[in-house]
Amino acid sequence: MQSELQFFMTETDQSDFFAFVRDLVDDISDNQRILQIGDCVMEFTPSQRENDILYTGKLSINTMDKTGAACDNEERAKNVFRKIKKWIKKHYWSRLAYLNKHKKNKLTPSRAYWLGPDAKKWKDENPDQHILKLSTTSWMVFEIGI
To answer: What are 101-138's pLDDT values in tens digits?
Structure first.
């Protein structure tokens, strides 16, 4: 299984996320970037905030090694990932749209990115100044849709 979730999280959202995840995984290491489930690994890349810009983060899982063999705890890791995904879908906002520079900056809906509750509050506080962006090099800027 290879999958990922992309999100915008503030530090508060990240704390709430780890409070939930802590009981599902065996270990959290490498400065909260590696979530261990038996011999399987999920990698957490936190959202980064620079001034008034919040960049996406992600949680990814790959239960196969480089030879294509599955880790021994693959089914358990899949179940944990599904529980985390379900939790994020329940608590996070998915109605985002991005400004599409290829369509004269028309807003294009995107349901592949998740906005944490505190990140949504942060964006709502100053929608013109607080920017949600895919990455430092990307042209994709997200707005909260309806």
So the answer is: 777 778 888 889 999 999 999 999 999 999 999 999 98
**Range of the structural domain that residue 117 is part of:** 1-146
Angle at the Cα of 44 (from 35 to 108), degrees rounded to 5? 145
pTM: 0.91
Q: Rounded distance, CA 111 to CA 88, Å? A: 13
In the block, tokens 């030879």 appear at 67
Number of domains present in the structure of the chain: 1
Is 99 within 8 Å of 122 (Cβ atoms)? no
Q: What is the distance between the alpha carbons of residues 7 and 49, in angstroms, rounded to a whole number? A: 13
Other C-beta atoms lying within 10 Å of the C-beta of residue 39: 14
C-alpha pair distances (Å), 114 with each of 30, 57, 77, 126, 128: 24, 10, 21, 19, 19
In a 3-state reduction of DSSP, which class is residue 80?
helix
